[in-house]
Write a structure and sequence with these properties.
There is one protein chain. With about 300 residues, the chain is an all-alpha fold. The chain is about 75% helix and about 0% strand. A two-stranded antiparallel sheet has the order 1-2. Strand 1 and strand 2 form a beta hairpin.
Length: about 300
């Protein structure tokens, strides 16, 4: 993944966002440039770069399409969770309102598919969107349910994040007509690990929104008193106490992240550099939560 490749992707993204109606342009740009690492685009470029030097217009277009689909998911997630902030900037629903957030997310999906169609990526993106929506439905169906299993929490992470990373890897092969060997397995494991990593960084906001993430599943099993805090309107001292209890679920979730990173590296050893960042984050969080393991 080169700086030139990412610059080419940004050029395509800028052109796509410039075509957005004026009333939606600023909120879409704000979310698009809110500090995202462009991991999905980076995976498209990394896979394509192993088969063909440089970044073709088709590759940059496919990478931008994946990013736009990811951004659409963020906008809709923030709307469903009533989140006020995303990566340090106001969410679309918080600043511009529900209607604008709904339209912005839908428009980003349309832009993603328009770009994807020109790169021959329509079916892959369609499948990824369907699976992501399925994950969102599964998540919504289980809000405020203390009986959510680790299997269900993992499946939600896989559907909402893993499937789009898997699609990104396969797109890198598609645009260069190179083999897809191991790319689906790699992307699925890597993406699921990334989703869980976000869950363990700060499990409190998700729990307050009724979302039972993997750390929450483990914490609910270890600290049954957490169950009575899984309710709408959690705030103040009760929310702070919930955060303290949730910390008990972080270490086993970090272990799962490590296992997923290992699965990804085994599926595609040549892409181990992509998973190193996730592994480094996981290891950096382990010492912080090690006292919980011994309590």
């Amino acid at each position: 993944m080169s700086a030139d490749g990412l610059a080419a992707v940004e050029t395509v993204l800028t052109g796509a966002l410039d075509s957005v109606p004026a009333s939606l342009r600023e909120p879409c740009r704000r979310i698009a440039h809110a500090g995202g690492a462009r991991l999905r685009a980076g995976l498209v470029l990394a896979v394509a770069g192993r088969a063909w030097p440089g970044t073709s217009r088709r590759t940059a277009t496919a990478a931008a399409a994946v990013e736009l689909l990811h951004l659409a998911g963020l906008v809709h997630d923030d709307l469903m969770h009533e989140a006020p902030v995303r990566s340090g900037v106001p969410t679309v629903n918080a600043k511009e309102g529900t209607a604008v957030a709904l339209l912005a997310g839908d428009l980003l999906i349309g832009l993603a598919h328009r770009l994807g169609a020109t790169a021959g990526a329509g079916p892959l993106l369609g499948d990824a969107l369907t699976e992501r929506c399925t994950g969102s439905v599964l998540e919504a169906d289980n809000r405020f349910h203390p009986e959510v299993s680790a299997t269900t929490a993992l499946r939600i992470a896989e559907l909402k994040t893993g499937t789009l990373l898997a699609a990104a890897g396969r797109l890198g092969a598609l645009v260069t007509a190179s083999p897809e060997d191991g790319l689906h397995e790699y992307g699925l494991a890597y993406g699921t690990a990334l989703h869980l990593l976000e869950d363990v960084r700060d499990p409190g906001p998700s729990f307050a929104a009724g979302i039972v993430t993997l750390p929450a599943v483990h914490a609910l099993a270890a600290r049954p008193e957490l169950r009575r805090l899984l309710r709408p309107g959690l705030a103040g001292a009760h929310r702070q106490h919930a955060g303290e209890l949730l910390a008990t679920g972080v270490p086993p979730a970090l272990t799962t992240i490590g296992q997923l990173v290992e699965q990804a590296a085994a599926a595609r050893p040549d892409l181990a550099d992509m998973t190193k960042r996730c592994r480094d984050s996981q290891l950096s969080l382990m010492p912080r939560h090690r006292p919980v393991l011994n309590s």
